Q: What sequence folds into this?
């Protein structure tokens, strides 16, 4: 066993993601399920969880929200990455006509889902929402996976004006989808869960939480019902 | 076939089995304490609580390595006032399950131990555990109380004066003579001992980053690597004190738990094994202990206690 707790690799490419974020492509090759995450360590700074956008090569999309994510915006090709993982439980990838619902940075794990489902020949629909056009993430990756894309922004700067859940409501009402995969802010996930129940469509969602250990022992990420986002999730049935 | 009884008595409190959720693992919320109780615990211990809220250390705080875990969470806790509500909620959830609740406490000064316990006493936990042995806050707090018999006794006496509930004192293995500390805290009023807290502190360095990996640089070791140290400490303590001992440190299987009981433990703490074996670990350990007892013809746990000491 290696004398380290983290896998090491280098940044190969950094692409813009929306107007403020970046997508980091590395030379680390993982074998992961879509929905799983890694703990990314910045030596002498911090270690935080990030959903995988792809596993081989390991790809992460990071938007600036705090000191760690702001530092990650400055990564350059050749910089070293340290990760633990893949960790947690991912999405099932069931369903013939899946609907992916992405709010803001929730697009990250769903881009991974879309590419796997497309590879399996499924007809994928994506409802991609954000507050404004500059916060829409990974639209190109969803298009590259051959997904049908319904874009919403709250300010109407791109796509339909409104919340992503309105698009979800319409798509589910038309009976076009047999399974929902969602990731985004908690209020969005609550609405999506309610719509899934209403239309009798099974759904799964990836949740966010403050995490420390990432391996199910420290108890920092209890959802409130005794389930741990890091080990029982981050993907839970809706 | 004879009936096998796993129940044990700890300071007058009946436990349906000897497996106690150790402090610092999963004991942060009432919902998690209930989940572990439903998963087969004989008793559950909260994460240690102090007077004031603490954020703890930055990440990385907990890391798996080939011998178990290394951690320096840094006593993250919501503070005593907020903990009263968590304990009360946990009591309400645990009561129908018949699983006792152990409230773990720490403080920066001996007198403050009494203050924390006085506040938490309102929530009526079944027992208190006094954490005088956290190795991860030395920069702020100085050496743990458990490093010195006199300091350890002062902290114990402060808790003893603050509650009528049974008091467990958790000892550190990182001392020259754990028996001297054990005797001192029993003389100061401890009703039971828990041995051991994490070993070390230790350090892991990432050789590519050329830096210690834990943000605190050092952390306490737990898991299989420390089990022989824990067994030795329990064995030695049980020769010099007559109070019950909770044997904690690397216990991962039902047979590990038997080993701890044969060393002299009354009950067994389980922590890092939740990482290795998941939430089902306690039910699995109970089945393993039953299988061993059936094989060896033991009807009850106390029949195995201290057997390693000989006649």
A:
């Amino acid at each position: 066993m290696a004398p380290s707790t983290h896998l090491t690799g280098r940044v190969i490419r950094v692409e813009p993601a929306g107007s403020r974020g970046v997508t980091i492509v590395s030379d680390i090759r993982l074998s992961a399920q879509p929905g799983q995450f890694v703990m990314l360590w910045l030596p002498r700074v911090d270690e935080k969880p990030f959903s995988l956008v792809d596993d081989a090569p390991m790809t992460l999309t990071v938007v600036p929200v705090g000191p760690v994510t702001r530092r990650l915006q400055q990564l350059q090709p050749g910089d070293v990455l340290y990760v633990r993982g893949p960790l947690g439980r991912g999405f099932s990838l069931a369903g013939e006509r899946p609907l992916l619902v992405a709010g803001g940075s929730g697009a990250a794990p769903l881009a991974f889902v879309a590419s796997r489902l497309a590879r399996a020949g499924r007809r994928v629909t994506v409802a991609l929402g954000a507050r404004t056009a500059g916060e829409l993430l990974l639209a190109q990756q969803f298009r590259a996976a051959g997904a049908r894309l319904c874009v919403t922004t709250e300010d109407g700067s791109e796509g339909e004006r409104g919340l992503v859940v309105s698009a979800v409501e319409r798509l589910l009402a038309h009976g076009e989808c047999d399974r929902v995969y969602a990731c985004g802010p908690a209020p969005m996930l609550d609405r999506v869960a309610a719509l899934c129940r209403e239309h009798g469509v099974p759904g799964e969602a990836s949740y966010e939480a403050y995490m420390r250990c990432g391996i199910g022992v420290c108890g920092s990420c209890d959802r409130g019902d005794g389930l741990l986002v890091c080990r029982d999730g981050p993907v839970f049935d809706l | 076939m004879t009936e096998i009884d796993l129940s044990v008595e700890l300071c007058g409190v009946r436990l349906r089995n000897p497996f106690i959720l150790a402090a610092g693992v999963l004991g942060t919320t009432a919902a998690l304490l209930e989940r572990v109780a439903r998963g087969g615990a004989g008793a559950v211990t909260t994460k240690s609580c102090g007077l004031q809220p603490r954020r703890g250390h930055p990440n990385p705080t907990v890391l798996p390595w080939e011998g178990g875990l290394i951690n320096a969470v840094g006593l993250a806790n919501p503070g005593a006032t907020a903990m009263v509500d968590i304990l009360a909620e946990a009591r309400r959830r645990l009561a129908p399950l018949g699983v006792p609740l152990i409230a773990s406490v720490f403080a920066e000064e001996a007198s403050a131990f009494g203050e924390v316990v006085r506040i938490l006493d309102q929530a009526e936990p079944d027992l208190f555990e006094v954490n005088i042995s956290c190795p991860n806050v030395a920069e702020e707090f100085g050496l743990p109380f458990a490093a010195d018999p006199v300091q350890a006794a002062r902290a114990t006496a402060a808790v003893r004066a603050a509650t009528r509930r049974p008091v467990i004192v958790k000892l550190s293995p990182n001392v020259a003579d754990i028996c001297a500390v054990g005797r001192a805290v029993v003389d100061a009023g401890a009703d039971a001992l828990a041995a051991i807290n994490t070993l070390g502190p230790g350090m892991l360095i990432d050789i590519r980053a050329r830096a210690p990996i834990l943000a605190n640089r050092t952390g306490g070791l737990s898991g299989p690597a420390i089990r022989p140290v824990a067994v030795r400490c329990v064995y030695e303590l049980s020769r010099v004190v007559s109070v019950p001992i909770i044997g904690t440190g690397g216990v991962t299987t039902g047979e590990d738990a038997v080993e701890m009981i044969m060393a002299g433990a009354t009950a067994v703490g389980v922590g890092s094994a939740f990482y290795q074996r998941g939430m089902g670990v306690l039910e699995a350990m109970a089945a393993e202990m039953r299988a061993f007892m059936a094989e060896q013809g033991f009807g009850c746990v106390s029949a195995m206690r201290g057997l390693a000491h000989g006649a």
